[in-house]
């Protein structure tokens, strides 16, 4: 997971471009942590004025129906 330590002063001194890049990296990492490789458009759809917790929840809800993990595949094949 991308970890970028920041305090309020560091965040406030960043350019908007730097803030956007960090948010995109964090969103990409949330997708990757779920085993999903997002497109640029999918990443950008989840970067915005939401908290990281809300962003992570929204990404998980997006990925779930699009990704089959090993346990789901086994369950399907043995049913």
Sum this structure up briefly.
It is built from five helices and no strands. It is mainly alpha-helical. It starts with 7 loop residues before the first helix and ends with a helix.
Number of helices: 5
Biggest beta sheet summary: none
Question: What is the averaged pLDDT score?
Answer: 82
**Number of β-strand runs:** 0
Morphology: elongated
What integer value in Å does the Rg equal?
16 Å
The amount of helix comes to: 55-70%
Strand content: under 5%
Structural class by helix and strand composition:
mainly alpha
Reading the helices and strands in chain order gives HHHHH
Q: State the oligomer.
A: single chain
C-alpha end-to-end distance:
35 Å
The low-pLDDT segments are: none
Overview of the structural elements:
Helix 2 packs across helix 4. It contains five helices and no strands. 63% of the residues lie in helices and 0% in strands. The protein has 79 residues and is mainly alpha-helical.
Topology at a glance:
Elements: H1 8-12, H2 16-33, H3 40-45, H4 52-63, H5 70-78
